[in-house]
Amino acid sequence: MGIFFLCYGFAVIIIYMIITLVSGIELREQIKRNKFVDYKDVITTPVGPGVSILAPAYNEGKTIVQNARSLLSLHYSKYEVIIINDGSKDDSMDILIKNFDLRKTDYAFEQEIETAKIRGVYKSKNPSLGKLIVVDKENGGKADALNAGINISGQELIACIDVDCILAPDSIVRMLRPFLEETNKRVIAVGGGIGIANNCDIKDGTVVKYRVPDSLLGRFQVIEYFRSFLLGRLAWSRMNGLLLISGAFGFFDKELVLKVGGYFPKTVGEDMELVVRMRRYMEEQKIPYKVAFVSDPLCWTEVPETEEVLSKQRNRWMRGTIETLQLHRTMQLNPKYRFIGMVSFPFWSLFEKNAPIIELLGVIYTLALIIMGDFSALYFLSLFVLIYFFSVMLSSFSILFQELTFDNYQEKGDLRKLIFTVLKEPFFIHPKIMTWCIKGHWQFIKGIGGWGEMVRVGFNNKIKANSENNGK
Amino acid sequence: MIKLYLSFLLTALLFLKVCEVAAFQSSDSLTTISFLNGTEKVESMFYKLKLKEAQDTSTTNSDAAHLSQLLNRVYYDFERAVSTRDSLIHAGIENPRIQYYIFDDAKDFDEVIDYIAIIKKNELYIPKTEKPQTNEELIIAANRIPFKPFYQLRYKIFNDIKFIILLGILGLFLITFLALLFFLVIARSKNAKRKKLIKEYKLQCQTPISSLIFEYTFQEIESMSFEQLSAEFGKSNFEKALFKDTLIKEIVNVNKNLKGDFKDKLRAIYTILGLDKFSLLKLKSKKWDEQSAGIVELFEMNIGYAVDQIEKLVSSKNFIVRTNAVRAVLHLSIDKDLKFLAQQQYPLSKWQQMSIYRVLKNIPKSEKLDISILLDAENHSVQTFGIRLVRYLGKIELIEKLSSMYNHVSYLGKQEILKTFKALTAFSELELVHRILMETDRNLSLLASNLLADIGNDESIEFLSTKLEGSKDFKLQKSILTTLYTLDEQRFEIEVQKLNQEHIDLIKNHIKDSLLSYV
């Protein structure tokens, strides 16, 4: 039993070291390549594909107008914005109608994917808002809302985002790059880097001043996002083994999404499930393909800073992961699915899905050893220090990558705050995250579903708060 | 006689007795020792060890104490006393001997022999049943070695390979973490320093550039020497690569935003300062990013004589170098010959097409640009790009060629040809478009139907009507009805009525909704 934990621990260390190395190489290349790109060329190019931005909204009345305006001001010539009001209980729809001068139209579309009933499709009477389409539908969940948007979209690519996200003005053109660059493989999806907007200054739908959040939970998520986007996803995309594109910001080949049946509304991990299903389809059809990742932080989102909301989010993420891996378990260690089946899938099963369980078993095993008197304090302490330093090192690498590339957090003391967070995280945050994930496992076993409620402060309030603080 | 006989007898008896005693005494010392060895305890008898002479036998206090303890000890087992005596001899203590005690009095060995004889008769002893083990010798030997604990932490660590590996990795991590932390701080300060330096250099460059291009004529600048010009920027700065890089970037940036005479002035500054050589050197670098940087700089500064060197890089393995080299060659070459592009072996990505198109669209119409060479390319991606260029650059004269090659191009090429016909309103290709509309391929029919909205005639309406009747595809129906609505509103109404389907009514409402005219 002890050997199993030791091997598992060392496997984690080796795999994450490989991931760090690969992501370092990829990041360096991406940064170098970016030097020779004038994204202004892409804005008006006739060569580029059309993009439909799909933004499902549920009770987002506080921020929906500002976010819609931000989406309408992106720098690209061929795109449309489809906001899907997923049966909000607040006044989101009224606010949209009023602010964008909307009228219900006779929009005819083919229901290629089954969704909840569409109440109406709205367009603005203002010709300058011609890019905007608002879909009002009965509540069916995020995946269902996205499917409704896919049915209505009229462009080659679909960009699925969270409506509360703030996109960088050049986000579309940057995300299009992998689609435009690839020649030998079909690019089926592209994921984008996500930054944390808490405590940042936002002006006209753009982040103008970056600051690390005030709370430890907020700062921890900054580090976590660095790790996830600058280390994990970058490395997996280079190895063409990326299984997850964040639901907050991802571009997909619409034709393929329709072929595989769109989002699966019965899972809470619809973003991962769609990518896995698309990859599975391409592997089965034996078509060369690629899932790419753009590391630039192009999408800024507000993260939960209270334990209550964060626990619900982590619980949901874990359930989503379990559901996806269960749904496509036939891919597990199946050589037919090549790298995905033999490497990505087992990695997710072993080190993402089952990690909290194995950690829990590790704790139980340690307690059992103590009770039986077979406990070596020296070994325990050494292993504990080893894992602690490994965790600290990994996080430090992600901060380093951020420093060497985007260098967004330039305020005095930001680096110090982040380093302290890295040192504290294994003691104060990690155990909580693991507990929430185990709860996710438990709820999956019990068959409990649903999203839980995400409480948003609203960026306007944040700006106000920040400007007040600045004023002081 | 009897007296004599009796005295003789008594004498003989006495003699025998004496001989017996003597014999007993000489042979009985061994018997006695042997007896004592086999006896665990003899009644009222014990032994002690004595040293024959006073001597300093120990070097340490602990040795002396231990010896004293041994000398004071009372032994009831003779064999044990002998063994201890022998150990003392081995330990280097001279002349230890055994002292016998009977009823607490010290006795000689002869007295012991007598006493033992009596003991034997009366059986006042306990015979030895088991020979006890002794480790006195070992203890005495060990006693002379200073004490050191055998099981130390160090021993435990260095004799456990797993632990050594663990500690090794731990140490490695610790060192890596500290190195990382150090590197993090260094990188941050280096970045900040570099940014600060670039900012300073930019300031140092901007003023002289502005004064040179606004206060001097082109001829005046052209007549300046390197010394004169470099003095404006600070001569010593030209030894620093970062300064030269910053200066080039500044010149290129200004060059992008200015036109005419100013461009010539900037170009003159660039060449007189030898920055062109700095850029040309980059082309020879083994690093792709430096090569690309060099190409971009020469491209932006319009350095025509660099074409030959740049052309060597059009087939570079690196995508970025290849893309920039193709752009630069097209931009800088005088004849604008696309032959090298038509001969490209690598598939042309959309990204490359985009950047090449950007160069081509800026070529003045007065200059001859033969796109048709791309239409004949064997490389499908180059051919498709050629078709697109016909559309983007509005090359109406190539419509006929496109029409003639329609059956021989790739599926993507076919789609691009139809899109090009639409963009160029190719009325002449109506017959081909009708044929495509009636084919079974859904995507091509869809494009043909869209195209007919722009070039269709009465005959097209009939084709559209026929196609509509046979089609169950929502998108195709929507497209055909939209085209019919554009070509003949009345016929559109008739066709809608004829189909009499719920979704056709929805399409009809959609087409008629003014807000959805472009959706």
Give a brief outline of the structure.
Chain A has 472 residues and is of the alpha/beta class. Chain A has 16 helices and 12 strands.
Topology:
The complex is a heterodimer of chains A (472) and B (519).
Chain A: H1 2-34, H2 40-44, E1 51-57, H3 64-72, E2 79-86, H4 92-100, E3 102-105, E4 118-124, E5 132-137, H5 142-152, E6 157-161, E7 166-167, H6 171-181, E8 186-196, E9 201-203, E10 206-209, H7 216-238, E11 249-253, H8 254-259, H9 270-285, E12 289-301, H10 307-327, H11 338-353, H12 355-372, H13 377-404, H14 414-428, H15 430-446, H16 459-471
Parallel strand pairs in A: 1-2, 1-6, 2-5, 8-12
Antiparallel strand pairs in A: 3-4, 4-5, 6-11, 7-12, 8-11, 9-10
Helix pairs in contact in A: 1-7, 1-13, 7-13, 7-14, 9-10, 10-11, 10-15, 12-15, 13-14
Chain B: H1 2-37, E1 39-42, E2 45-51, H2 61-72, H3 78-90, E3 96-102, E4 105-107, H4 109-122, E5 125-127, H5 136-143, H6 153-158, H7 161-215, H8 218-222, H9 226-233, H10 241-257, H11 261-272, H12 275-283, H13 288-300, H14 307-311, H15 319-332, H16 339-342, H17 350-361, H18 372-375, H19 380-392, H20 399-405, H21 411-423, H22 430-438, H23 442-455, H24 458-470, H25 474-487, H26 489-499, H27 502-512
Helix pairs in contact in B: 1-4, 7-10, 10-11, 12-13, 13-15, 15-17, 19-21, 21-23, 22-23, 22-24, 23-25, 24-25, 25-26, 25-27
